[in-house]
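Q: Here's a chain of 359 amino acids. Please give me its 3D structure as tokens.
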Amino acid sequence: MPNSRKNRVKLSDIAQASGVSLTAVSLALSDKPGISKETRVRVLEMARSLGYHFKSPASSAQIKPIKTIGLLVKSSPGDEPRANYFYSHIIAGIEGTCRQMGINLMFANLPVNQDNFPLELPPLLEKSDVEGLLLAGAFVDDHLSQILDRRSCPLVLIDSYSSTREYNAVLSDNVLGAYQATQFLIHKGHRHIGFVGGHPGAFPSFRDRRTGYWQALTDCNMGHPTFADCLFNRAELATAVLELVTQNRQISGLVCVNDDTAISTMYSLIEAGIRVPQDISIIGFDDIYLAENVVPALTTMRVNKQSMGRLAVQILLNQMYQMDGGCVTSIYRPSLVERNSVMEICRSEAVEEITPSGN
């Protein structure tokens, strides 16, 4: 007796039985590139053994091939017309995966305010041929959420967050990364450590990094945290950093919210006559291209940015093939990259006061 509609073999059944992803099953059954010959044979054999009903060439495909997805990447006011050092690697991971799978990728900038909420929505959102979306570096607000719901457009967030509802997401472990960065300075003998960048109401990833720093100090009984809160512009950052180190002259190490902030902090201190790392050690977060090319080369927490982009595409395709699959949040753990901007100090030696030149 043929299977009833209720008991038909699902793609998820084939994926589980053959030990591959739902995306690989779809690519094999629709005869699309992107998987190895061995995987394709294994999937097809498993589908037959489970009694999967193959469509005849004259009939419609079991799964409609995904042709086009869209990518929205945040663009902040005042950004220079160049690729973002962080998101360019995510874009590369996304583009490479789409090319491998024969999927068209449409790109648009998403203008955001200083808190990363959209200022305006690009025409890409209204294109009917875009079957799914990736969003990098911004919030999903009510307006954007309503558009996505109206279009029934699947979405995966990359280093992004929603103020309205739950979406699939790929994030880095910002709390753990900042915790480990702070612990690294402590293990190097630093006992007075400040945090530079962002503010208590900043983007969630930056708030999480503040939390990780604070937690590390608390767990190691390092006293009260000290912050140089600021927006992300060079002049305000320089003022906040110099105020922090002059009012807390025992500080010998700084954890920065990201590498851009760390590099600007380094330049501001050096211009004020404070040596890095001899007077103050600095550690960043992200491991952007410039981190290893500044002097001194920046110690930082590396985020696997290309892998985040590749995984986001896989999650989006899984969501599009199985709409009732539930939400998934995948979190990448950063790893320490030790360079030259952190110096080990003797724990017993007296801490010299640091006074910027000209003060």
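Q: Can you summarize the key feature?
A: The domain at 174-302 is CATH 3.40.50.2300 (Rossmann fold).
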